[in-house]
Amino acid sequence: MLKKIDKKIVAYEVISLEEQRKKAAQEAKDKIEDMHENVERPEMLVGATYKIKTPQSEHALYVTINDMVLNHGTEHEVRQPFEIFINSKNMDHFQWVVALTRVMSAVFRKGGDVTFLVDEMKAVFDPQGGYFKPGGGGFMPSIVAEIGFALESHMKMIGLIKEEQMPEAQRNMILAKRAEYETLNGQQKDGDGGDFPADSKMCAKCYTKAVIIMDGCLTCLNCGDSKCG
Ligand SMILES: [Zn+2]
Q1: How far is the CA of 102 from the centre of ligand 1 (A)?
Q2: 145 has pLDDT over 90
Q3: CA 119–ligand 1 middle distance (angstroms)
Q4: What pLDDT, on a 0 to 100 scale, did the predictor assign at position 16?
Q5: How far apart, in Å, are the Cα atoms of 12 and each of 8, 15, 23, 146?
Q6: Domain range summary for the chain, segments of one domain joined by +
Q7: pLDDT higher for 105 or 177?
Q8: From the CA of 132, how far away is ligand 1's center (Å)?
Q9: Quick one: DSSP state of residue 212?
Q10: pTM to 2 decimals?
């Protein structure tokens, strides 16, 4: 490129080829990559597969989420979901599953905060009623919601969603409530504290049968959600 110099040259500096290369490399490094629509699919993606087994079908669903590693090797390194696939021998849901995964993958590639997908999906209720996960895993309002839970655990695993730690005070409050309830109802406190009182109701927030009624208040012994009156 030619450039006409129409001012007096007052200073000059010789930059070696090596220095130029170093500078260019540093500049490239300083540029923070973001997820956007035109991001090129790398040759290799890292991912994880989650198995979903519902009592509604004899075949499991396998949810695979592949991530792109942005700003690899820098302090800004992040894993962002790039695409999602769902495989199953069960063809009942084929049509909407393909549509859902294509739309989700498109949302992933748009970039920005994609964690909202988790809440949207977890809030989907099957009009025919949900199901209890086999092996005492709690209630699932729909298959879509369970895919949402899989996405949530994936996003927690890659650090996109921070694991919410229950504050100490709230944990103690729950333990106290539970002890009080068990004393009032003459129930034996079981050793591991794993099971909730047998007459617990379903919690609408964490889908666990752990809600007790005491002093006119509903309290979930699992997540601490509570409503009075
Ligand atoms: Zn709860």
Answers
A1: 32
A2: yes
A3: 15
A4: 83
A5: 11, 10, 18, 65
A6: 46-157, 168-228
A7: 105
A8: 15
A9: E
A10: 0.69
